[in-house]
């Protein structure tokens, strides 16, 4: 069936707006690079773009497929999701390489497979060399934490950094017709071989760095921005973070990596940035800790580039005031930092070194350089959080707002595997909502917005983050039932569901 014009037109339009190096066509070994969120999100993912480029350089015909913006319109048209490059239906590719960033994107993967007529569960798909359903290989940021809920949907995974491994895995697939050889590769996970025991994550050779985007476009979350990795890893020890320095096992021995950051020199970065790219985004878990960041920002501004940074540490902004000054010159309108917890006491328990004095310095910098807003990311519901911590948050935010307008980006705390806080309980939907209400009430009349993410969906994320294969099965049933919160609550409350704290704990949460 031909793709309806109304569905094809937006794809053709955005392809015409792309700049950079297109993926070569006409090659025999076709690979679908799949992102289970819409184009605007997927093309803002440096990892997705980088692995796509790695495969193209190894001679594969790479074609990108994204979750449609309007899934219901595609469902009504009975249209299969298609590739950006040739409008080839997803179901016609022999292998699908999926990048998964976080737990709730499993829903997008399920929706893509269902739209394509591909049974979401591995056990329901047909396999043979001359036809049948595509093979599904998964990677992405989620694999650093807990990818087990994704296992029922895939034939194999690459855990961790995939650059060294992914092309060999796909070579093996085209040679053998299956991913059986993946189990012998670093970070290679084959559910039918390993069961629910995940191997250590892979680590890419430093000579392959930095990751960088191949294409930039105005049709993304990061408008016309060329993304490049300024460093990889983190030398800090925040107890909630999967990228902390001592939680990344080496691929062979399982020894913990304490090497911290892997730095890219400014000269190397500058030589890789295309002259025609209008804006440059520097990416890294601790990019603001790069010792040569100020000089790099100055060089980019001298070259006429707009600039962006993936994350800023409040202590670095306070210590190096040139950073906020240069970012403002490079087009930044919002200065964004993280406090991560409601009080100084809780920041210390999380091994987060940011202090009130440093955050106040960030507010002063935002005022001095005429930023529109100071945005402060933080979590509610961290272990041992008390009413006194919430009162401290309110009092301190008022101090910030007296200097410069503030927005609190508040997310409920979700403990993740491979961190010291793995196994910590979720605070409870009603508890988080009650504390949010208290923060809103306490900040009335001051220049401070509260921008929370949903406590309900954070609870769903928590259930998946702590689950095994059964979490994926529950995700499928909830999605097929319509995907409302009640569907998720019913599935996670099933008798025998083994994820901890499966029952929502109080009367308000059960309503």
Description:
The chain has helices spanning 5-17, 39-42, 46-57, 71-76, 106-115, 166-176, 191-194, 266-272, 293-302, 314-319, 322-329, 344-349, 356-368, 387-403, 429-442, 455-465, 469-480, 485-492, 507-510; strands at 19-20, 30-35, 61-66, 95-99, 127-128, 131-132, 135-139, 156-158, 188-189, 215-216, 225-229, 231-232, 262-263, 279-283, 306-309, 334-340, 373-380, 406-412, 448-452. Residues 247-259 and 501-511 have low confidence and may be disordered. The protein has 511 residues and is of the alpha/beta class. The chain has a 6-stranded mixed beta sheet, with helices on both faces. The protein is globular, with a radius of gyration of 23 Å. Among the domains are: 27-194, Rossmann fold; 209-311, no CATH class. Helix 16 packs parallel to helix 18 (485-492). The chain contains 19 helices and 19 strands. The longest helix has 17 residues, at 387-403. 34% of the residues lie in helices and 16% in strands. The two termini are 45 Å apart.
